[in-house]
Amino acid sequence: MQTETKMQVSYKNYWYIACQSHELKANQALQRIVLDEWIALFRDEEGKPVAFQDRCPHRNFKLSQGHVKDGLLQCPYHGWVFDKNAQVVAIPSESKNFKPLKSRCAKRFDVLEQDDFIYVRLESHPDIQSGPFRMPHYREPGYRTQRLFNVFKNNVTNCAENYVDVPHTVFVHDKIFRVSRDEKVDATVTRKNGTVKVDYRNETDNMGWFSFFLNPKKEKIIHIDYFHVPNITSVEYIFSPGKEFYITSHSTPVNDQLTHVYTDLTYRFGIFTPFAGPIVRYQGQSVIDQDIEVLDTQMEVIHKYGERFSNSTADIVHVLIESLRNAIAKGQNPAELGEQQHDFEFWI
């Protein structure tokens, strides 16, 4: 009796942001790289996004350098024309003698548009069927969002771990984000269904320059961090009724050493919401600029000495994130890993 072989899971089975919606204009092709795969993007006659491998099957030219007209993409080398289904629909050198052949086609990737992003998926898997992560409260009434894009010379794992790493904030972001007070923080971390969730307790007003505004009464805040496989971090702060702040980062792997990061800073500050945009953007980008420097330097050290880490108590969060990403690297479905929960404490 033959045993059915289960299809291995891959990083290619997940959705990644290729670009922002406004970057993909009508009648224009665009190149992006995801997981070292070259991708040519364009919009069809209905304005919907299309994604091909950035390779013309005729003589191996970049389709992203081609021309788009009426939703059709033409290779600039010999003029082969492709429709949204990646089929060749015209070859100038064959003129009226052209006959469509299914064997003459480009490689097509899954693509969709959501929350003003263009997402691509390189390969499908029967057990990985969820769509792209929804950006929290994006375009909801009462909320505003500042959207940032940054490039990190590091991999997705190290980037994601940095975004939910609380202890580093008092050193890298001193005064901007937090101040070292030697205050105890209790936390519970849970790994379940491909997500790592961290509930922090005992935090009040250690929020940097704007603590007086965000939490003037110094009441305990709600602070929850999430990591969703394979590349999403979402940080939630609820300071008081009507004051909320969400930091959501989607890390798109260009390759093993380069990551494009799209960050949404979504907030609700009551009557101050319409006016907070410039400050939120400046503050957020200032923090990210510091993290870029740290993560770029970290990768320099890794190149020199290899990726070997020693852990403190608070690094249980990183260990669980790595367990999910390592499962994918081994071909396993991370959602099938057993549930774990740990209480821990640290001081900042």
SSE string, helices as H and strands as E: EEEEEEEEEEEHHEEHEEEEHHE
Spans of at least 5 consecutive residues with low confidence: none
Could you say what the CATH architecture of the largest domain is? Alpha-Beta Complex
Number of helices: 5
Q: How much helix is in the residues?
A: 10-25%
Query: Which band does the percent of strand residues land in?
Result: 25-35%
* Helical/strand content category: alpha+beta
Strand runs, count = 18
CATH homologous superfamily title of the largest domain: Naphthalene 1,2-dioxygenase Alpha Subunit, Chain A, domain 1
First-to-last CA distance: 59 Å
How would you describe the shape? elongated
Domain Rieske: 16-120
Protein name: Aromatic ring-hydroxylating dioxygenase subunit alpha
Keywords: 2Fe-2S, Dioxygenase, Iron, Iron-sulfur, Metal-binding, Oxidoreductase
GO molecular function, one term: dioxygenase activity
Explain the overall architecture.
With 348 residues, this protein is an alpha+beta fold. The chain has 2 domains: 11-121, Rieske [2Fe-2S] iron-sulphur domain (Rieske Iron-sulfur Protein); 144-347, Naphthalene 1,2-dioxygenase Alpha Subunit, Chain A, domain 1 (Alpha-Beta Complex). The chain has helices at residues 156-163, 169-172, 211-214, 277-305, 316-329, and strands spanning 16-20, 30-34, 37-43, 49-53, 67-69, 72-74, 81-82, 88-90, 108-114, 117-121, 144-152, 184-192, 195-201, 222-228, 232-240, 243-255, 258-269, 340-347. Strands 11-17-16-15-14-13-12-18 form an 8-stranded antiparallel β-sheet, with helices on one face. GO terms for molecular function: 2 iron, 2 sulfur cluster binding; dioxygenase activity; metal ion binding.
